[in-house]
Design brief:
The chain is an alpha/beta fold. The protein contains 11 helices and 8 strands. It holds the Pfam family P5CR_dimer. Belongs to the pyrroline-5-carboxylate reductase family.
Length: about 270
């Protein structure tokens, strides 16, 4: 466990997922976490379900914390950062930003000498299965071990130069949606060939879990694992070739690349 308190400014999907993951991990007690939202009823379920503190007052939350996670939308980020700057500077708080498209330099321009870290997790952080990309400003590096310890309890971490953060955002954060869309499509195919909706979704979810664990635990590349089930004249290769003919891999690659371009446009 860590002894510091954490304030999460912005109790939307990602902010709420971080709070849930922190409590589930046992790294902090629920009483050490405060989540904010302008509409208290939106985060009331967090207090009811996992016991964290909730408030509409960002400054109050910051004053009761040593680490501040900002999880608001990019459109309101600048105004919020300017508003909380004095509270952050007052007691040398550490700020972790999970705001998509807002660079370290943008944060520094507003916050000046505050230690800043950019983190890009995904919503699987709620069940401690996120991959979180981290980038640090110079002052933030002093807190690297502490921040890595936090996010390692919520899945795995990857420290990268900030120049790679747009790519990490698309693949690590948006990638959850890509994987879930594959699951949905596979499940729909299963229904068409005779499985019930429940059966088909259960199979699709488990094959994704199994495939992921094969790569993670064996440290292999997908192709050798694919080769193990693609026998000559078999069903698997017939199905794979049909998918490739219809653009399966190409469409996924282009989707990732398209998302990357969108982020670069946002950051420019």
């Amino acid at each position: 466990m860590i002894s510091k308190n954490i304030a999460i400014l912005g109790g939307g999907n990602l902010g709420a997922s971080i709070a849930k993951g922190l409590v589930k991990s046992g790294l902090l007690q629920a009483s050490q976490i405060t989540v904010t939202n302008l509409e208290l009823h939106m985060i009331q379920p967090l207090q009811d379900e996992i016991g964290v503190n909730i408030t509409t007052n960002n400054i109050e939350a910051i004053n009761n914390a040593e680490i501040v996670i900002v999880a608001v939308k990019p459109t309101v980020a600048h105004a919020l950062l300017a508003d909380i700057k004095p509270a952050l500077q007052k007691d040398k708080k550490v700020l972790i930003s999970v705001i998509s498209g807002v660079k370290l330099q943008d944060l520094e321009n507003v916050l000046e000498d505050v230690p800043v870290i950019r983190a890009m997790p995904n919503t699987a952080i709620a069940i401690q299965e996120s991959i979180t990309a981290l980038s640090f400003n110079e002052k933030g590096l002093a807190y690297k071990d502490e921040v890595v310890e936090i996010f390692d309890q919520l899945g795995t971490t990857m420290i990268i130069p900030e120049s790679k953060m747009p790519a990490a955002t698309v693949l690590a954060s948006c990638g959850i949606a890509f994987a879930l869309r594959f699951m949905r499509a596979a499940s729909q195919g299963g229904i068409e060939i005779g499985l019930s909706s429940k059966e088909s979704l259960e199979v699709a979810a488990q094959i994704m879990k199994g495939a992921s664990k094969l790569i993670i635990e064996n440290g292999t590349h997908p192709e050798p694992e694919i080769d193990k089930v693609t026998t000559p004249l078999g069903v698997t290769i017939k199905s794979l070739n049909k998918m490739e003919h219809e653009g399966f891999s190409s469409s996924l690659v282009q989707g990732v690349v398209s998302g990357h371009k969108k982020i670069l446009e946002t950051e420019s």
